[in-house]
Predict the structure of UDP-N-acetylglucosamine--LPS N-acetylglucosamine transferase.
Amino acid sequence: MEKKRILLLSEGFGAGHTQAAYALSSHLRKLSPHLQTKVLELGSFLNPKVAPLIINAYKKTVTNQPKLVGYVYKQQYKKPINRLTTLALHKLFYTHTRSVVRQLHPNAIVCTHPIPSAVISRLKRLGTQVPLCNVLTDYDAHGTWISPEVDLYLVSSEEVKAKLMHRGVAADKIKVTGIPVHPNFWEHPRHDEIRSRFNLKNMPTVLVMGGGWGMLSDKVVHQLLARWHEDIQIIFCHGRNDKARISMEQDPRFQKENIHIIGYTTEIDKLMEVSDLLITKPGGMTCSEGLAKGIPMLFHSPIPGQEEENVHYFTARGLGELITSLDVVVKWMNTLLHHYPDVIQKREQHLAEIAKVHPMESAQCIMNLLRDIQPSSSEETPV
């Protein structure tokens, strides 16, 4: 019997999209060990010289001009990627996409970013026959995710489903599964082993993150946190931002007991497990990982657009709070210091609720798609 193959396509515009693809890949192989999965950041794979330049330009814009990013997001909010833009993307970066699909011959394609979805949608209009699934990686539904060629949408919440339906997507094409996170985030290893691994103490602990790009830009908040180092353990995780990590390591204000400064790690799940508060950029993936761990969250510097919507979703449910002033941080430090048992009890309550969620729901929906739709891949129209 021929093994089934699933191609998962992402892009490097932030770490969350690709993390979702790898999380799905892990879940799919757990459900079906004989299934073959392949994760690609399509632009970087097909054009490794140009794609990083574009991603770095985007990163600089997000860092230096977040309001511009928000303006563009909102201007295009209700619009799908138009045919002209799709054609331009195809000619500039993805003229070899059809060859990749032919070579890998997937039984289904899953996109965790709207750009590869637009390219595959165009290939489908030109004759490629393959089931296409979009996995939305925020708690919002931007118009660029929407295309008639998409067979299945996996979304984070009922609110996102309603937004897609309002824009004409049929209800039976949308499944509310939550954003897929790596299986490790659903596990609860021994705390003493984790603390030993990272040289941490058994005391109230705050984990500070800036996403995969390490966008820890709020120096005033960081300096405030450092003042609590005698009573509260602080872990600053800078991701791939080595410049910011080295700068903090050399700053005497952070060279204190119980302050830990680290760079990129694949063990964020373990750090969340032994932390009592997460201070983070509100990316969809990080928020979902925090949700799986049941950890309370404080959100800093949301990018106008999807991150603002992520903040709204979690704050409305009492799962996080936006840092609107330093008073919010002080309040939480005092809570950890003086009401620590209450923080632990509330987290246990959250975990009990989260335990009702099926972490492999996204993967199961994709397996169902494979079962229900069985076209043969073909290229009937030249690109």
Q: What stands out?
A: Residues 205 and 275 are 5 Å apart (CA to CA). Confidence is low (pLDDT under 50) at residues 375-383. The first strand starts at residue 5 and ends at 10.
